[in-house]
Design brief:
elongated; 4 strands; alpha+beta; Glutaredoxin; binds FE2/S2 (inorganic) cluster; 172 residues; 8 helices; four-stranded mixed sheet; 2 domains
């Protein structure tokens, strides 16, 4: 899990943060043998633990599995599941597929952008939300749709955007 408290705590010194992130990377690496074939599973654990792949993790992983850093970097940038910058804890995905588009998907996206103050591919400054668009989530009958983390919302309206984001904030 991402330790948001660590990210948000402005009183934490950078030395403490470095030690903390080193410790967390050590913990992740201790789950593996150090083989080249483990690269993707290791990066998945790092992504899960930090919410992104920190630069330092690339160096550490490369040493651990004895491959050049550029190899690790190449894999981390090739797969869209890996992020190289911190991303929001809650991922909001708005569908941009044809069925959603013809039923007002663009208006839903605009409203989400307005409410969160970010564009697709960005995260809010408090790292609460990340916004993405998707081609189709396979629920076209419910168009227009959006997804927040694992929750799918259909027949969206601009009014419903506020309700959905508020309910997600309250953890409902
Ligand atoms: S096009 Fe949006 S769910 Fe299929």
């Amino acid at each position: 899990m991402v330790n948001i408290a660590t990210i948000k705590d402005t009183k934490t010194t950078s030395a403490e943060q470095t030690a903390d992130s080193d410790g967390r990377i050590d913990e992740i690496l201790s789950l593996f043998k150090g083989e080249e074939g483990e690269l993707i599973p290791i990066l998945q654990k790092v992504q899960l633990g930090f919410g992104y792949i920190p630069e330092k993790a690339i160096t550490r992983v490369a040493k651990f599995i004895r491959v050049p850093e550029v190899t690790v970097f190449g894999v981390a940038t090739f797969y869209s599941q890996f992020k190289l910058v911190p991303t929001g804890r809650n991922v909001v995905r708005v569908c941009r597929g044809t069925a959603c588009h013809v039923r007002g998907g663009a208006r839903i996206l605009k409203e989400v952008e307005r409410k969160l103050g970010i564009k697709p591919g960005e995260s809010t400054s408090d790292l609460e939300y990340a916004l993405e668009t998707v081609a189709c989530i396979g629920a076209c009958a419910l168009a227009p749709t959006m997804v927040v983390n694992n929750d799918t919302y259909g027949k969206m309206t601009t009014k419903k955007v506020s309700e959905v984001l508020n309910s997600e904030e309250q953890g409902e």
